[in-house]
Amino acid sequence: MLPAGHWPSGHGGLRDTVRQELVARQVDEQIAARYPVGQRLRILDAGMGPGTQALRLARAGHTVTGLEADPDLLKAARESLATEPAGIRERVRLIEGDGRETGVHFMPGSFDVVLCHGVLMYADEPDALLAGLARMLAPGGLLSLVVRNADALAMRPGLAGDWPGALAGFESDVYTNDDGVKVRADRLEALAATLAGIAAPLHAWYGVRVFTDGIPPERGLPAADELDRLLAAEDRAGRSDPYRRVAGLLHLCGVRG
Question: What is Dmax (Cα atoms) for the chain?
Answer without folding.
Answer: 53
